[in-house]
Amino acid sequence: MNIFWIMSMVTAFVVTVFALRAAIFLRRCPVLRPTDAVPPDAPLISIILPARNEAAHIERCVRSLLAQSYPQLEVIVVDDGSSDATPAILARLAASDDRLRVVRGGPLPRGWTGKNHAIAVGMQHVRGAWLLFVDADVSLHPSALSAAYLAARAHGAAMLSLWAYQELGSFWERVAQPVIVGMSHAIDPFQRTSNRRYPNAAFANGKFILAERSAYEHVGGHAAVREEVLEDQVLSGRFKHAGYHMLMLDGTQVLSTRMYTSLAGIWEGWSKNNFLTLQRSFLMLFGSVVAVYVITISPFLMVLWALIEFKFSQQVFDPLVINLVAILVLLVTRWRARYYFDTPLRYYLWHPIGGLIFIGIFLNSAYQHTWGHGVTWKGRRYGDVDPIG
Asked: Would you call 199 helix, strand, or coil by DSSP?
């Protein structure tokens, strides 16, 4: 039994486990579907949208918020020191709809991240009994807010968060994002977050968080997580530990986002968060890097190795066949998850490159948060130094 055969069997086993977990997730994941059955006397919902240099996205996002079928809403956009056309776009939109208010975020205080401070500023202007926090790179189906509110009330949830459909435009988005987002989905955060039997399992996606205002204020809101780069995760933990019920749903039918448009954006954006999601644990980092390598790179590399060194041996459990089957399982799994991030089939063969980028992001994130000078986002630096910008 040589090392090549052992590595092939380990790769096949890990890929099979991953595929099974993904299949279970896809089968059980609760999906939020569009609905408009909200009574006209439903409470006012205040939507808070922080925006910093979002000229490329802000108009589409705001128009989708104002187009919601929910009967009572207000939209508060906080301009967080934008230096592009964002303020001009917002002024034009606000002039045509009195439900939209634009406020300035002001200077960033010491000890705050920009997003958390912008939301805290926006909270000074809200009037609603429920709050919706969204990012500027999202677009909502007209029924998204109605469906989310009804789901939260039906399940007695004080916080509801959605995962979004990933819009992928550029080459690097189609190569990297399905690997990064897909492997995150495979850990199945939805079921455990929504289950009271897992008090420490809290997860939220900052692109869409609907919260009951009284509960939000009880846990301290974004002011209580002012220094956190991964504020959505920490805030959801405060909800869960306070005893509030949470609901995490597949929102791909009502919510879409284009997170990044370039490899540089993907690298910077995910590096900001990844080591924090591992709780700054180098043991978890090592396990994650190994898992990504085995699931995304190893079977492809082993096939090349087999073709070059061993050829086809005609054994029952030939390593070449084993790794080809592992690749097939991976590609079928990705195809089954296509409604999260639909890409042309030719991009499936770039799967190992996406894995290599993901590993690089993990290592870069760990370096920046540990030995570097912090991470940068939206022209500001966070970490071991005070925010700049």
From this structure: coil
| 107 neighbors 131 (Cβ within 8 angstroms) | no
What is the greatest pairwise CA distance in the chain? Answer: 74
For helices 171-185 and 351-370, angle between their N-to-C axes, nearest 10 degrees:
70
The CATH code of domain 31-164+205-261 reads 3.90.550.10
pLDDT number for residue 247: 92
Nearest to 301 by CA among 93, 14, 39, 4: 4
The alpha-carbon radius of gyration of the chain (Å, integer) is: 22
**Rounded to an integer, what distance in angstroms lies between the CA atom of residue 141 and that of residue 161?**
15
Reported in sequence order, the residue ranges of the chain that DSSP labels E, i.e. its strands, are 45-51, 73-79, 100-104, 130-134, 138-140, 159-163, 165-166, 208-212, 246-250, 255-257, 375-377, 380-382
Rounded to two decimals, the pTM is: 0.90
Angstrom distance (rounded) from CA 96 to CA 282: 52
Residue with tokens 């997730």: 25
pLDDT, tens digit, for every residue of 265-320?
A: 999 999 988 888 888 899 999 999 999 999 999 999 988 888 877 655 555 457 88
Residue ranges of domains in the chain: 3-25+277-382, 31-164+205-261
- The residue among 255, 168, 153 whose CA lies nearest residue 206 is 255
